[in-house]
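Researcher: Here's the sequence for the chain we discussed earlier.
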Amino acid sequence: MHLIISRTDAIGDVCLTLPSIGWLKSLFPQWRITLLVNAYAAPVAQACQWVDAVAVLPTEMQAPALADWLKPMQADQIVHVFPNRKIAQAAKQAGIAKRSGVWGRVYHC
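Model: Thanks. This is the structure I predict for it:
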């Protein structure tokens, strides 16, 4: 199972997500977890022992190209902790079958 956790907002918010990733890893140590972040939060994500890989969101990339960027990651699921319509649409176009996010954002489906 390869899970992408999309948290592309402030560094402090990324830090608040890290214990949840540790909890997931304690339950499912075999899962591969990639944390999708903005470039300025990448060093924090890379320092986390529970994160298997860090993907830095390319700036200025639109949904079709972003889908092509996501596809080789071969993720089974993406969780949008921070809602981002462009990433959600790209995940769907990339063929990530399981997509979930914040309630009330139908574009996560």
